[in-house]
Amino acid sequence: MKLLEGIKSRKSIRAFKTDPVPVETLMEILSVSVQAPSGVNLQPWEFFIVKGEALKDLKHASLEEHRLGKTPNPELPIGDIKGVSPVLEGVFRERQVELAKQMFGLLGISKHDKEGMEQWNERMVQFYNAPAVIIVVIDRTLQGLWPILDIGFVAQNIILAAQEYGLGSCVMRAIVDYPEQIRKIVGIPESKRIIIGIAIGYPDMNHPINRLKTKRERIDEIVTLVS
Ligand SMILES: Cc1cc2nc3c(=O)[nH]c(=O)nc-3n(C[C@H](O)[C@H](O)[C@H](O)COP(=O)(O)O)c2cc1C
Asked: What SS3 class is residue 203?
């Protein structure tokens, strides 16, 4: 796949075939992805690939926490107040609402159908049943926001490179909402800070959710040319 084609066609995949993803494929993707830039060549990333029984346990634990109404507590703060999503305003709120409208529209779930929405949420907290999940962590000694920026670069490489292998992915905060459970099940030591998860697998293109193509702002609305 040509690079520009890959960048343009990439989108989040939220329904997967049950086919397992070979570990060798995931390792190849990661070995390419670490070509990402990082400040002072810090390479702050480390990865945990979670599959099989461990992934089953992780999904189960995540669903339990969700059903118990536990407040998500990712190690990268969501908003200013611990665990609470920031209140979005203006165009940002509009984009968030538009995404939800598009998603639930494709799923045939109306805004009054609380049960339907909750069923979808339960799929999300089980990482859309992806056959594999990559959890990206950084060493706790790395302070400040710059290493987090580096994680963004490597994550983007992962989701782009995955396409070359016919794989789809979804970067997901929902994977890392309950870090205590992740540490227990995956065995991530306290010395590592859990940043983000990526659900990965072969896309089920028959599922309506995978018809979702999110919108982007017109480029001339967001570019200022100064010369
Ligand atoms: C940091 C981050 C966290 C995300 N968390 C979730 C998530 O928990 N659940 C989900 O369905 N999508 C999640 N997404 C995917 C976004 O909703 C998606 O990237 C956005 O709507 C744009 O759509 P696209 O990726 O299809 O272009 C996340 C994306 C990012 C970058």
From this structure: strand
pTM metric for this prediction: 0.97
CATH 3.30.1330.60 corresponds to the domain 3-70+91-209:
no
Beta strands in the chain (DSSP E): 45-51, 132-139, 168-172, 192-201
Q: Contact, 45 vs 150, CB < 8 A?
A: yes
pLDDT value at 80 more than 80 = no
pLDDT in tens, 105-121: 999 999 899 999 999 99
Supply the mean pLDDT for the chain: 96
Ligand 1: distance of its center to the CA of 12 in Å? Answer: 7
Q: By C-alpha distance, which of 152, 147, 143 is closest to 196?
A: 152
Which of 94, 170, 209, 217 to mutate for ligand 1's pocket (most ligand atoms within 8 Å of CB)?
Answer: 170
Residue 173 neighbours by CB under 8 Å, 6+ apart: 72, 74, 78, 196, 197
Domain limits, the chain: 3-70+91-209
Q: Is 100 helix (H, G, I), strand (E, B) or coil?
A: helix
